[in-house]
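Section 3.1 - Work completed
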Amino acid sequence: MGNLSFKRHRFPPDIICYGVWLYFRFTLSFRDVEEMLAQRGIDVSYETVRCWAIKFGPQIARNLKRRRPSPSARWHLDEMVVNIRGKRMYLWRAVDDEGEVLDMIVQHRRDTAAALKLLKRLMWSQKMTPTEVVTDGLKSYVSALTELGLQERHRPGRLRENNRAENSHLPIRRRERKMQGFKSPPSAQRFLTSHAAVYNTFNTERHLVSRKTLRAFRADAHAAWAVATAMN
C-alpha cells in the first residue's frame, strides 16, 4: 500500500482528500467542488482542486484497487464511442457479472488488434483466464478470442446477457457530459481509471440490500478510503 505525501501543500490532507473524493465520487465539476468547499468555509480555487485530482487521484485509485477482492471470472466486454477534441475514438471496457469495473482502455480503432489489446491487458492485470466472456456481436471479439484460444468460452451477440456492460457505461456518459467531453486520450484514461476505482469501492446496488446491510457496505467503503489516503 503506497502512502500519500502531502508535503508542501497549503491545505491539510483531510481537506485535499475530501475534495478528491467529492470530484470522483459524484458527478461534479471542479467548480462544483470549489463551491461545496467554500460553503464549508474552505477558500480554494477550482484549479487547485484540478491539481489535487491529477496528482492524488491515480495514487488513491491504485491503493483502492489493491484492497478489492478478486473479481468474478465471468467477464462482460463492450466498447463505446467517445469524442475527444472532435475526434471519434473508442473506449473499450470490461466488467464482471457483479458490475465491478475490471479495466478500460481508450483506443483509436474498433478492430481485432484493439480487442486483443484489451483482453491481454485484462488477463495480465487480473491474473486469471475468464471462464466466460460475454460480448455484443462485434466480430473483432471473435477473432481476438480465437487467437487466444478462448473461443469456446465466448458468448457473443446476446444483448440481454451483456446488460452489465451496457449499463456500466451510464456513469461514464454522465461524467463526459459534465466535463463537456474529454480533452485528450491520456487525460481520459487517467480520469476514467481513477473514477473506476472509486466507483467500485462506493457503488452499491442499494435496492437489492437492506438498510442495515447498506450501512455496513458504506462503512467498509469509507474504511477502505481512509486506508487508501493514509499519509507517510
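Second construct:
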Amino acid sequence: MKTKNLAIFIIMIIFASYLIFNGCNNTDINLYKKYVMDQGLVHFSLEYPANYIVDYVEYAESSSDKSRSSAYFFIMGPKDRHVNDYTRISVFAIPPDRLAPDAKSLHERSEAKAESWKYYELIYKGEIMIDGISAYRLDYQNMDILPVIANDGSPGIEVMRRVDFDANGFVWTIYITSPLSTSDADKAYFEHILETFEILE
C-alpha cells in the first residue's frame, strides 16, 4: 500500500514539475500579438512579434480611386533596437493595375530589380503555400545604405525575404527586411507570420 501511494506521489510530483517548468519556459503566448485588418475592402489576420511596433496602417477604401484602393500594414522592431537596426515587416494588398497585372509579374519584376544591385546574393527562390494559396518566395541579401544616407554609420548587409501571391482580386506581398546580424531570428518571425496569415471574408 505504501509503495503504491509513494509511486502515485512521485508521479504527481513529476507531473507538477513538468507543468511548472513548461509554464515558466513556454513564452510563445507572449511572443506574438494578433493583428486583424477588418476595415475597408481587404481583410486579413496574422500574428506578429509582440515587441514590434505597428508603424503604419492604411485600409483599402475604394476600388475606383487608385489613391485609396490599396491596403498597407507596416511593423518594425524590436522596440529597444536603434532605428537603423530595426527589422521591418510589411503586408501590401494592391489592385492588379497598380504595379503589375498579377503576383508572378510583380515577383519577377522585383527579382530583376534586386539582381541588378551590386551586392545582390540569392539565398532562396521557390514556391510556397500561404493560407492554402500558391505564392512566389524570394530570399536574398544586399548592402544596406540607410545608415550612410542618415549619416549614422557605415553600410552593412541586410537580408530581404518576400512572398507574392494573388487572392480576392488583389496582388499581395508580405515582406521583411532585416540586418544580417539578426536575420536568423527574423526569419523565424517571418515564418510565423506566414504560418498564421489568413485572408478573411
